[in-house]
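To: structure desk
From: M.T.
Subject: fold request, one chain
Message: Could you run this one when you get a chance? Sequence is below, nothing fancy, just the single chain.
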Amino acid sequence: MDDWRSYDDVAETYARIHAPRLAEPANDLVELTGIKSGWKVLDVGTGTGVAAIAAAGAGARAVGIDESVGMLRVAHSANGSLPIATALAIDLPFRDGAFDAVLANFVIAHFTKYKTALFELKRVLRPGGRLGFTAWADAEDDLARTWFELVQSVVPREVVQAAMDERLPWRERFRQRLPLEEALMEAGVRHVRTEVRRYRFSYTLDEYLEARAGRIESAQALHMARARSGSRASGRARAVFGERFADPVNDFREVLFATGTKPYGRPAPRTSSA
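Reply: Done. Structure tokens follow.
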């Protein structure tokens, strides 16, 4: 991995391990957002296309955008009929009001300028159109704590924290319902509703460790571990997890959903006729 900050090199792992499990919350997001057949839907930060594919399954005409070319390449390989483009959430290449719904599936924590991104998402939405978001809402469990113990045995805690702050600057803020509700309402979104749902994802230990290794807080640790001790770090992780946990493991995760509507503009004032 030449740049541990990039998601390009983990795209195939994401598609193989994460995407099948994240299909369930993606389908729930489409349902909660109220997407209808025939709607034009934009999936911002589409990754390998999980939410866009869920929207297409509901009969919508979905388009996915992402800044990671590697993710989009894998998305195209999996579903060549899915329209995709490289773009940033803060500068969308679409006209005002182009879409009936906009989805942002597990990406709002990544937006460095989340206020700018939210206004841009609302800009490309038609009046009366729908917005749908997901974010991770769960606290750290034994699986995560064990992984972070291993990560921090290689990389100092403050270095890991800095890496996460760089790529996930709002991960803590948007784990909670109220801050996400406030952010959407400040952006001018109305009829905002939130709820939390719990999911169980089952992995073999090897799948779980491979999935964890692709996360941003892990990538730097593994990058440094390879430089110091080659493959011994991954072997140690397998040994520790094999001792502490059953195989397969059940990873329970909580997902925060938020939906809202772009309001209609105010009608023009009436003028009296002469």
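Reply (cont.): DSSP finds ten helices and seven strands in the chain. Let me know if you need anything else for the meeting.
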